[in-house]
Amino acid sequence: MQFDSGLLQHQVMDHTKIYMITGANRGIGLGFTRHYLQQGHRIIATHRNDSKELMALQTEFPSHLILITMDVLLAASIQQAFTNITSAVTHIDVLINNAGRYGSDQATITEKLDIEDMVTTFRTNSLAPL
E strands of the chain, at which residues? Predict the structure, then answer.
């Protein structure tokens, strides 16, 4: 049995999806955002802090990119983001739960480990996605 992967890819890509990408302002999240926008999908991009790269994408794809400020550690911020998202779209097809934190620049130096910074990093990366 022969399989034409080009045909399948074409059929799949004809369907525009709504992606929600957390942590979309830089790094992998920004890369996912850019990639799926270029494929014609609608993106809900959540971010704690603005970035000039994300703002440039907003200018380039104004009808496909919805920017939502959200801090995954703050319940009030999550609730406000939920309200904003549900007023903008009726559903989300794909969630890329990418928001994360590496820790402080000093985190690799054992003598300078900050317990509060470690706890914040743990909460962001392990508990917030739940």
Answer: 18-21, 42-47, 65-69, 94-96
